[in-house]
Amino acid sequence: MDIFGWIQLALFVAVLFGLTKPVGIYLARVLDAKGATFLDPAIRPVERLIYRISGIDPDREQSWRQYAVSIIAFSLVGLLFTYAVLRLQNLLPLNPQGFGPVRPDLAFNTAASFTTNTNWQSYGGESTLSYFSQMVGLVFHNFVSAAMGIAVAVALIRGIAGHSAKSIGNFWVDLVRINLFLLLPICVFYSVFLVSQGVVQNFQPYVTAEVVERLEGTADSSQTIAQGPVASQAAIKMLGTNGGGYMNANAAHPYENPTPLSNFIQMLSIFLLPSGLTYTLGRMVKNQRHGWAVWLVMTLLVLAGTFAAWSSEAAGNPRMQTLGVSAADGNMEGKEVRFGIFGSALFATITTDASCGAVNAMHDSFTPLGGLVPLLNMQLGEVIFGGAGAGLYGMLVFVVLTVFLAGLMIGRTPEYLGKKIEAYDVKASAIAVLIPILFTLGFAALAAVSAWGVAGLNNAGPHGLSEMLYAYSSAAGNNGSAFAGLNANTPWYNTTLGIAMLAGRFLIIVPVLALAGDLARKKRVETSGGSFPVGGGTFVVLLTGTILIVGALTFLPALSLGPVVEHFTLYGSVRLF
């Protein structure tokens, strides 16, 4: 744990903090249908044209039920569209590699994955999908699924800020404005930046090159070098917290992430919108201290995870040390040497704090406690900044639960920013918290006792359990990263993981929107001396504790049988205990 890592960490937090306010202000303007932005002269005519062609009335508000139906209907059409593209891949253009149709179970898994902003990849990116499939079938979802998450978060904020209201906005207006005024403009400049760093962007066929020296034991003297429209997809995969890599090696591939600067900017872009949304929260509810308190909770949890993962990886593998490998070298297995241990530990923490599956190292190669950090991050609900929008509405669910518990402690009716928290609100919040828990532990248990589940393992014992637990935590949490030691491209895994992804997205969105609708209809009451403050140190401590307790109590038994047991086994084998 050297000084260079500490400098990088301090720089990352400082830049993120500096960007939070301006991004939050801009987001608030974009999410106000009548708000003015500097892009209005160029984009307002396009926005009006889209409304006219689509038959959208921008002045018509929706109830929470109408908002939810719009989301589910739109997502279902998108899922079927992507499934059809993958199944008919061989008949569509921009397929210079001549790839055939994708298997039905894999096509379902992939369509469900990108529809839900999970971007789990059971396939090898550049070896399975054509340019058309990646650009049209998948990138479409990278934009609209990210916009959907932001829209749901803002709908919940509107519910909190509303007063005796029957509506929480218009989903179609939110979807259009977020894409036109936010995601598309940023991604244009972001893609150009990535190209300047060396990320590939073309439509050329793959190149076959003769190797200088053939690897011992192999007969092939040539190597296939993949290329394609990489930069444009890398931009939205990071900004939209999607994470699906064009290349199978994801952000560890030099064509996706070539330099330390590109690595830093990619990490920053994962947190950019989730961080800005915390300021948007404070601005819209007219309590900026509350927005910053939520940001502080998220940042403290990021730092805790980073320290845990970094220290564990820097300590190295004790088994290697008994063979004469210096402990100072740390655990470099599975790391990209350009970024080193700190760059890998920070990236792993960030990508699992957010619902972003991008990786620049193989988490399966982390030490047991190093691998525990990304696993626990997902199991906490990925509310530590979280995905674009999804992290904030997940965090606000925990805020409601925290306020409810605080009210019980002092013997008063719980109250959140002038809104009474009642049984309906607590039930909706509890359902949103319990759904990913149910599908994570339920499917992991099913896989652990099934022949098809065990057959996909590359490791036995506690590490094998961690691989299965990680896969379903990633799916139900809509993260998309993998331990990479599990062969999940089988009919049973593809189907169960796809179901977990759909449940982890839409069975959470519906109760969140129900919560938004219920809060919106309530009258705001004046705060009093007995109201629980949601902007001070007490709130920060209680919210952090609620998040950790829910995760610890729920997943501790499974984690104890996986990474915790593996940790003691690892050190016990060299007689350190």
Write up this protein:
The chain is mainly α and 577 residues long. The chain has one domain. It contains 19 helices and four strands. The chain has helices at residues 3-30, 40-54, 64-87, 104-115, 125-128, 131-161, 171-197, 230-239, 260-284, 288-315, 318-321, 340-353, 368-379, 390-410, 423-448, 451-455, 461-476, 491-521, 537-572, and strands at 207-210, 222-225, 415-416, 419-420. It has a two-stranded antiparallel ribbon with strand order 1-2. A two-stranded antiparallel sheet has the order 3-4. Helix 4 (104-115) packs parallel to helix 18 and helix 6 packs across helix 7. It is globular and about 75 Å long. The two termini are 24 Å apart. The model has no long low-confidence stretch (mean pLDDT 89).
Notable features of this structure?
577 residues; mainly alpha; two-stranded antiparallel ribbon; two-stranded antiparallel sheet; 19 helices; globular
Q: How many structural units, i.e. domains?
A: 1
Terminal residue distance: 24 Å
Q: Strand fraction band?
A: under 5%
SSE pattern: HHHHHHHEEHHHHHHHEEHHHHH
Helicity range? 55-70%
Output mean pLDDT.
Answer: 89
Number of helices: 19
For the secondary structure, the number of strands is 4
Structural class: mainly alpha
Low-pLDDT stretches are none
Radius of gyration, rounded?
Answer: 23 Å
Describe the largest sheet. Answer: 2 strands, antiparallel
Q: Can you list the strand order of the major beta sheet?
A: 1-2
Coarse shape: globular
